[in-house]
């Protein structure tokens, strides 16, 4: 049925394109009439690119193929996910621990793939949780969340999670400024008292482990988006700000007073040096660091108690403000590292700053005053150029690696292609409707793959069959290999994608893990041999060491469980074949099922409330005898003398 629908859509798209393709024949070349051919990935064939779309308020990350727009996986990150048991199984609950306790949801915006020498290396992908500030690292061989670190002194972790060109740091900036450290104070004393923390989290080059290196405590503005310098500007990081007015109420009016806000330019290498030489101030903090171990298949959460803060005025030459009109949102750096693009949401023009000019202006020491001790460069001194009348409501920019930039315009609903250096608009195409971010695979690196751009739209309306008041957001795929962009496909997304990251399939597909090796399973409750199954009572806790293989559980009959017991089902999947998970669910379970991958162990807790004989079963259709993959647990009264026993095939 899905293939059938897909065919209808692609044939439909082909018919449309045949008619308008004929008018455009001259500019688009002979193949342009066949949009269907461009997006059609025949049954059995695979896509050319991976695309990782943030889920926004789903808290997760979704994986798509390009050009087909087929969704391959939802990777649970910040949100509980009953499909796999993430955030429900005992092993994954610690991943969602924070200083505020168990937080099973977040708002995930900006994925970024790890880089080496400014090029995608496909080892990890990072993504931010906005609401309860966190950064996650996802392993791109297992496509599972491997680590989550909470970010203290931050609030609305939005100018995140962008990485430096050798993945030295994943950077997390605060949207809301807050009292640092948090304390009870009147809200209207915000101005001059609240701080905006920009957090540099180091990434261990071998294992990817994250640790907060330092937090730069900036003036109380809103730090909206950021991007790393690269190439010549490697060592710098750029953040857009808004609300430089430091308003604490009715921001839609009060934060739109200043003609220009700033892009903050941070020389992180300088600050790193300062910190390595003993600079900075350690302050008490309380934040969770959660790490998932692939061999024990278990997450652990550790509370960290201290963070190193840096006052930017103590590191001369490290922090500058670049005036940028008006309430800029996106902050994007071109593949050469020369141009820093600030998109003023309330401005008609795009502002492009020059890195070289910035350095010259800094060296000249010719400033336009300061803000809280941080020098403000002169607008004209750093301006590279302006893109005039691009559209209305510019948000985000990506690059094709061929000297062109592509900017989304929310209000005028379009993607506009323009040329770096001449600032000339080359092409514009409508989006349906109200586009936010866009993504070119590798578009945030020194080496973009400028074949496709994906526009992620905020409003769907009539693009799909209606599904009641709530519609999934729409994405649109444009072929950008020619001079003119060509809209070739629409596909629905999940949650609210903000940013996305993409890469060639060959970077990830060959190393994608197929199974977990049973002989490498270090889970403390794993059953690694067929006869290792057992049931062990420890007071009112009962541990069931259970294994699965097509098509039975061992054991499948358990007696001697009593009301008031806490029963831990530790399920080890003995399969060693690709794509043969087994599931586990038991009647009355207060959590979700588990989906256990080959060679993996996962644990579900069950606290039976009533006497009876309760069934459990496999939730994943694993073989012709999947429906036979079931068992029973006998639950007796709390004071009963029924002996604990377990069996299979007796
Ligand atoms: Cu523009 Cu969170 Cu990057 Cu959404 S943000 S669109
Ligand atoms: Cu195992 Cu179904």
UniProtKB/TrEMBL annotation:
Annotated signal sequence range: 1-24
| Pfam families according to UniProt | nos_propeller
Give the EC number(s) listed in the UniProt record: 1.7.2.4
UniProt main location, coarse: other
Concerning InterPro entries, the annotation shows: Copper_CuA, Cupredoxin, N2O_reductase_N, Nitrous_oxide_Rdtase_Sec-dep, Nos_propeller, NosZ/Cyto_c_oxidase_sub2, WD40/YVTN_repeat-like_dom_sf
> Record's superkingdom?
Bacteria
This chain belongs to which protein, by name?
Sec-dependent nitrous-oxide reductase
Classification from the root reads: Bacteria, Pseudomonadati, Bacteroidota, Flavobacteriia, Flavobacteriales
